[in-house]
Amino acid sequence: GHVVVAGPPQHVWAVVARAFGLADPAPPEADVPAKARLRHAAVERWMAAQHQALPAVLLGVGAWFDFASGAKREAPGWMRRVGLEWLFRLCQEPRRLAWRYLWHNPRFCLLVLLSLLRRRG
Predict the structure, then answer these.
(1) Distance between CA atoms of 110 and 116, rounded to whole angstroms?
(2) pTM here?
C-alpha cells in the first residue's frame, strides 16, 4: 500500500521524516505530494497515528501507484466490473495476498454481520 500526503511541504516532510527516522531531510522545492511506501496494514496505522500532526489529506491508495507506473498489471475490465479484481490479484501474488484475502476479509465480514445481529437482538 501507499500513503499519499498532501500539504505544506516543509511540515509534511518533517512528519514523514520523524515517522521513518530520517535526520533533518531537505524539503522538496515544489509543493508536490509526498509518497511513502508502507505495507498494507502499516498504512492505516501510520495514517491514524499521524492525522492530527499533518495539516493534510491522507489517502491510502493501495496498489494504484503500481498500476499507474506499469509495475503491476490491473485486472481485466470485465473482472473489475463484476467485482473479481481481488481474485486476479490473488492469482498474481498468492503468497503475499492469500492471508489478507482468504482470512482477514471473511473474518471482517463475519464480525460486521455479528455486530449487526447484536444490534437487532
Answers:
(1) 10
(2) 0.53
